[in-house]
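For concreteness, we quote verbatim a single protein encoded this way:
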Amino acid sequence: MSPVASLADSVTASRSRALLLWFAAAFALLAAFSPRDLWAPDEPRYGLVARHMLEAHDFVVPRVNGMPYPEKPPVAFWAMAGAGALLGGVTAAAARVGCALLAAAAVLTLARLARRWFQDRDLGDTAGILFATTGLVLWNSSRVALDLPMTLFSLLALEAGTVFVTSRTAFAASRASGGERSSIVIWTVPWRSRKTRNVSPPRSR
């Protein structure tokens, strides 16, 4: 096979993988419109919280039956209320759509994080596709649940930490404080960057 044909096949495979990633992320949105009611015990309660937010225009304190509900973070409730505002009320489908949007964002965020760690777009897309087909995502993405919204923000926090650790500012500060070039070892972030290299720690004098 000629180099040109090989390159063309590689580009086609990469585009197909990217399209599959976006389809996997959008699957949650399609499933959110399934014709079913909210399932007890959690889905109806979360839907009531979002409905109260939208009807009372109180987006600060989540409430159930007029009582404060501080047990869960409000971001998923905001997403449900926002979907309800666009769809004419917090119905069962609107509540699921709000959570499905956060689930889709979690899939795409994991793919972006994997690309950043391994400097490989195809590997990142594959990681996102595999994540989208796990039981966690398949079961929870089309439900009014808080597992994937919390997963999303955990991934965003991990990505922010990765950006900070790998930024030139962090490396410059490390070199300035050590007096010589030193290596930064982060055991919880298994990334491989082409722009970094292992450097021996400063020798004692």
